[in-house]
Amino acid sequence: MIFTVAIDGPAASGKGTIAKALARELGFRHLDTGSLYRAVALRSLEGEDPVAAARSLDPERLGDPRLREPRVAQEASRIAAIPEVRAALLDFQKGFARRDGGAVLDGRDIGTVVCPEAEAKLFVTATAEARAGRRHAEQVAAGLDSTLEGTLAEVRARDARDAGRDVAPLRPAEDAVLIDTSGLSIEQAVSAALAVVRSRIGR
Ligand SMILES: Nc1ncnc2c1ncn2[C@@H]1O[C@H](COP(=O)(O)OP(=O)(O)OP(=O)(O)O)[C@@H](O)[C@H]1O
Ligand SMILES: Nc1ccn([C@@H]2O[C@H](COP(=O)(O)O)[C@@H](O)[C@H]2O)c(=O)n1
Question: Which ligand 2 atom sits closest to the C-alpha of 168?
Answer without folding.
Answer: 20
